[in-house]
Amino acid sequence: MNTPARWWHPLPDGHIQCDLCPRNCRLHEGQRGACYTRRIQGGQMVLTVYGRSSGFCLDPIEKKPLNHFYPGSSVLSFGTAGCNLACKFCQNWEISHAKAQEEELLPASPDAIADAALAWQARSVAYTYNDPVISAEYVLDTARACREAGILNVAVTAGYIRPEPAREFFTAMDAANVDLKSFSDNFYYKLCAGHLQPVLDILEYIHKETDCWLELTTLLIPGHNDDPAEIEALCAWVAEHLGPDVPLHFTAFHGAGRMQDVPGTPPATLTRAREQALAAGLHYVYTGNVHDPAGAVTACPGCGSELVARDWHRILRYRLTPAGACPQCGLKIPGRFAAHVDSHNIPPIPIRLS
User: Fold this and answer.
1) pLDDT of amino acid 345
2) Looking at residues 100-112, what average pLDDT do you find?
3) What CATH superfamily is the domain 52-351?
């Protein structure tokens, strides 16, 4: 469904500029932005995917990945189609390339999504699969419906958004996992058709100016962003600008998108990156997309006690106090925690809205 879009302005030459993300697309009548979901129609910008979804799944929150946001809880995940980056290694490229997907999207109103989350007893709704910032109008309406129903909101995003819409977008989110794809602008430009600095600026904004809980993910791709020097620089930036308590997830790449010929990430690379991050002073560093129980443990940085043990997305042991503190030394662990784990084993469940 086409609906009026926000964050745009007319240019003197008759074009319209989109002000949603740093790409600043300048468009003429009938033309779509790089994300494909924002189009000029009748001299105005419209969002073409409002109220339509590419699918729903009930997931464990650890799959997002979020390890410090109500561990063990269930989250209703959904997305639309399209993306404002063009990552050659995209693992959801069928969804992010909206040109082939838009006609296959299914109706899903904001109220219907909130009702589904309640019906499936999900603590939160995650805007994921493709980047939610490109359908911000739809996401914000859904987030309002969810909050009215007592459901929390989670964004899984690359954080490629301009400051003005970011203020409204992340104020509506209770948690976000932001994909920090690399610490190299050359990587962003050549492999993602974007730039690094806008993402760094948004990360600082989320952490310092909002109540949105923040975690980071970096997908390590052999030969592209796994150099120890780059990882060291990334960790140093996180420690200095975000602090040691923002969780960082290093995840393994498996051939995808236009990089099918690139080998998968060796587990040793993730282990090394995690060790570098811990040595840089970061307190909560995790590995993902590989079976690595040691890299999934939440440990107390004060006394070293194991607080949450995981196997893939399953929680094996949960030892935080009801106040979210270490039972051994009393250190408060940053994040959002319940008095107990909602579930120890929630398998992903594909669902359809009635």
Assistant:
1) 63
2) 82
3) Aldolase class I (3.20.20.70)
